Every structure is written in C-alpha cells, then in structure tokens.
Amino acid sequence: MSLKPYFSKLEFECGTDEAGRGCLAGPVTAAAVILPKKFYNVTLNDSKQLSELKRNLLKPIIEQQALTFSFAHISPDEIDSINILNASILAMHKSIDQLKIVPEFIIVDGNKFKPFKNIPSQTIIKGDSKYTSIAAASILAKTYRDAYMNEIDKEFPMYNWKKNKGYPTKEHREAIRKYGITKYHRKSFRLLPEQYSLDL
User: How far apart are CA 98 and CA 69, in angstroms?
Assistant: First the structure.
C-alpha cells in the first residue's frame, strides 16, 4: 500500500510522530516534518517496518528534501513528572514549534493529541503507515532517539542500550536487577515485572 502525500488540501501540512514511549530508559523523542507535496520515496514506510540500515539511509534524504523538520527529546525526569502520554504530546508540540514554517494543518500518528496554537489537527491511527509526512517523522524520531541511546550507552554499557535502545528486553531487565537504575531510567515505569515499589 503506497503512502498518501497529504491529508488536507493545504500547502503546509506537518506530520508528527514519537519514538520510545514503551522504553524503560531514555527520552521520548518526537519529530515533525513538512514535506513537498511531490515528495516520493519508494522505501519510505513506518519506521517500525524498516531495518535500522534503511532508516539511517532515509534520514538524510528526508532532511534534504523536507521543507522543514525538527525533533525534540523529553527527559526521563519530565516523563516521570507529567506521565508518558503528556510527555509524548509535549515532544510533538516542541518539535512542531521549532519548524521554520508554521504548519497550516497537523497530522498526528495515533489517537491522542492536544491542540497546538489553534492549528487544526487530525489524529490518525497507524498514520505512520498511511501518510508520507508521518512516516518521515517516525523515521526522524526513531533515528534521533537511537543516536541518543547509543551515546548514553557509552556511559552505562552494562545495560546494552546500543542494542535494546532502552526497551524492556529480558537482558535490559536482568541488568536493572543486577546493577540497579541510572539517571536515565524512568522511575514511574514498572522496571521489573515483580516490582511494586523501588527503593529510591
């Protein structure tokens, strides 16, 4: 199924998506992208459907051809403070706010969003596999977040974030059990399956 270029008829439609919502460590990261209406790339798809190699190849193509793009990280402390849903929406708002062109319309992956600056918006379930700009935003959010996790992996290599990117893999949970938590872990999340409260 090929991706649709635009949802609205407006010239400057922005797609936005986030990455890292289900992780135990690291930020939640969102990106926002306005693409030209004629943008087309045969490989482009929802970032979850693509290999890391393909995402990394698409990233510079999207950035070179986009009319404007941006991304934003929300820290684990802020996630713990306002909850992951609000943090995801805040990351999207911040990335939209940093665009060099003010969007006339916003399309959002998923079914939860809060109005942004009176700009009309539409949530689209599985939008990252339906619309070009959301798919592009999903790739930027994922690649920028992965790069961040690769950096902090150097600080705490025992959690193997360069491989698991902070997701709740068996290996990541074993490392939490063995070494405890770091400043990058989300304390409001259930870090261990049997956890009821963490002694912090």
Answer: 8
